[in-house]
Amino acid sequence: MTKKTISPDKTIGILGGMGPMATMDVFRKIILHTQAERDQDHHKIIVMNNPKIPSRNEAILKSGQSPLEQLILSAKALEEAGADFIIMPCNTAHLWYDDLQKEVTIPILNMIKITAETLKNTPYKHKQILLLATSGTVYSKLYQKELESAGLFLCVPSKSEQKIISSSIEAVKRGLIKNNPYLNSLNKIIKKYYSKNVTIILSGCTEIPLLFPHLENNCEKIDTNLLLAQAAIHKAREEQKVNKVGGINMQTKHIQLSGKVQGVGFRRYTYKQALLYNIVGWVKNNPNGTVEVVAQGSSENMKLFIKRLKKGPKKARVTEFKCLSVTHKTNYTNFKIRSK
Question: pTM of the predicted model, to two decimals?
Answer without folding.
Answer: 0.72
